[in-house]
Amino acid sequence: MKKLKRSARLVEMTQYLLNRPHTLIPLTAFADRYGAAKSSISEDLAIIKEVFESEGMGELLTFAGATGGVRFIPKMTKEKALHFAEELCARLEQKDRILPGGYLYMSDLLGEPSLMNEAGKIFATTFADKEIDCVMTVETKGIPLAYATGAQLNLPVVLVRRDHQVTEGSAVSINYVSGSHKSIHTMSLSRRALKDKSKVLIVDDFMKAGGTIQGMVDLLAEFDAEVAGVGVLVESGAVDNEERLLHDYISIAKLTTVDFKSKQIIVTPGNFFEI
Prior knowledge:
By secondary structure, this protein is α/β, with parallel strands linked by helices. It folds into two domains: 6-74, Arc Repressor Mutant, subunit A; 78-274, Rossmann fold (3-Layer(aba) Sandwich), CATH 3.40.50.2020. It is built from eight helices and twelve strands. It has helices at residues 6-18, 27-34, 38-54, 78-92, 107-110, 113-126, 143-153, 211-221; strands at residues 58-63, 69-74, 98-99, 103-104, 134-138, 157-160, 171-178, 183-190, 199-207, 226-236, 250-259, 264-269. A hairpin with a 4-residue loop joins strand 11 and strand 12. The longest helix is centred in the N-terminal third of the chain and has 17 residues, at 38-54.
């Protein structure tokens, strides 16, 4: 039990809620934690709820009854999301990001926790009302984004391997087609990593035609699992709809032009802003 002044209690309660998104917290838990009456806790939560919603941080839902409590749902307003996307696009348009072969260097951005956290909030906003059991990505670049999204949804992360690891135990492996040259690759998932009939949110850092993500969709079918949604940080706009293997997805940014000779890169906000 902590005896705190109300101002200090408000700060700690806010932090407590932010660290436990999508978790139902009984009022008695706060009352016992701070040695305060439920009526005082309710007043505190009303203040926090007002701040969360007015600042576009998310919703604080209240549930009545003996088993009730509060649940914080992280969300980002379209205005804040667009501001984030425009900043991301500007950074992606830096000329020195072009690599031989017309590839785009993104590893530094994927390594920024604050950046991935904001991207995770956008996906958490999009899929907040979906029934999801876990977040999935394929190693390795998409891992920071997957964990950021999982943290915002308070969900575990499942990693698909490109090569089977002995330490993963028995696994299911499939072949999939990826890349402009339609090359065949293999991905695998430990049988212990995913329960049958799970509802899975797939996230990835970059999508061109969608071969890798379609491979994960096919892999999930081997577990009788369901795709609850797909989110990508950056999609390539240089792909015809006929070539795209995946059409139901959310993107934060769209790479429309990469000119190796002129060093020109054009990136625009993704289809999240068309919803």
